[in-house]
Amino acid sequence: xxxxxxxxxxxxxxxxxxxxxxxxxxxxxxxxxxxxxxxxxxxxxxxxxxxxxxxxxxxxxxxxxxxxxxxxxxxxxxxxxxxxxxxxxxxxxxxxxxxxxxxxxxxxxxxxxxxxxxxxxxxxxxxxxxxxxxxxxxxxxxxxxxxxxxxxxxxxxxxxxxxxxxxxxxxxxxxxxxxxxxxxxxxxxxxxxxxxxxxxxxxxxxxxxxxxxxxxxxxxxxxxxxxxxxxxxxxxxxxxxxxxxxxxxxxxxxxxxxxxxxxxxxxxxxxxxxxxxxxxxxxxxxxxxxxxxxxxxxxxxxxxxxxxxxxxxxxxxxxxxxxxxxxxxxxxxxxxxxxxxxxxxxxxxxxxxxxxxxxxxxxxxxxxxxxxxxxxxxxxxxxxxxxxxxxxxxxxxxxxxxxxxxxxxxxxxxxxxxxxxxxxxxxxxxxxxxxxxxxxxx
Length: 442
Hints:
The protein is of the alpha+beta class. It folds into 3 domains: 3-48, Transferase, Pyrimidine Nucleoside Phosphorylase, Chain A, domain 3; 79-325 and 428-440, 3-Layer(aba) Sandwich (Pyrimidine Nucleoside Phosphorylase, Chain A, domain 2); 332-419, Alpha-Beta Complex (Aldehyde Oxidoreductase, domain 3). Helix content is 45%, strand content 16%. Strand 13 (429-434) and strand 14 (437-440) form a beta hairpin. The chain is globular and about 60 Å long. The N and C termini lie far apart (49 Å). Pfam families: Glycos_trans_3N, Glycos_transf_3, PYNP_C.
């Protein structure tokens, strides 16, 4: 079997069998297949797509490429949540302590930034001392003691996905349903959680721009999880504008802290609570999402969710004083307001451009070896449907380099579209996909 032949087969719309996909995954993981051949294969997949069978084979091969984490030592039903990636998406930081407060163990493995989207691991590392590298024993002990832990993907857990994930990021091969589904679900299957909740983004800042594509991805992943014997839910949420108002690393952590303190933006709270309610439902903690919602909101009102977040940070080596005093976070040296060029309403936001503006500032990766500036970012003042006056600030940029600030400003102005008619605001949540079908919430 030769990689050249398999690239050619996929290029010509052929369907690969289980053995051929295992050959590609195992060969690349071991270093026997070079980056340039794997890049060609990934591009062929993006152009010609994969069948359901190919996607299932790819997912299993990637899950089996390394260790399958054994979490049986964790007490209770372990839940995990994963997002397909968005701009300003810090829901994991909000919902995990809420769920943990209610006694349901959150055993979560998260990723770093990919393309124009941020990563939970990068955000958490803006907290001084915080470690996302725990031994399996530490991970299990933390979840048993405080009911939550969030770590980076280990070298031996789905190593094929880790290599492919980094390559996709720099070869424009991110936005493919099969590659996204197999990447997410291979990690979920290998990481040992009992219940999987998926946040599937849709809109201009998502990898899936159209609702129909997001729905197809959600169904694909729920099917994979169900076949693997794990209760799996997919919540399709809006990404036609950034979630919340903060886009960056440390400033997103600050916004998560504000939300856990009861002072966060409405959209971030609503999406976080909805996802968390299905985590509770899957774990058998509640009988309905509505019941879960009330319990979750009470964790914020009582202050228990914020205390749990601080406890979690401390347990992973971080300075928990930052959670109660977010003004301690390192600040960028340049603070600059981008102003509206005209009067009107915000009729459209090219959210991926907002994400790329954050990358330009240094808040994301240009190459897989890029170093991130954790203090830079963007605060959004005007969102879809908001009325603006000429020269009114629409966003504030936080930068440490004036040339990067100038480039980010161009991207912001390119991202915003203004008009005379007030547009209809998109819903925060579109639908929920379960093994039984689709619940439309629009």
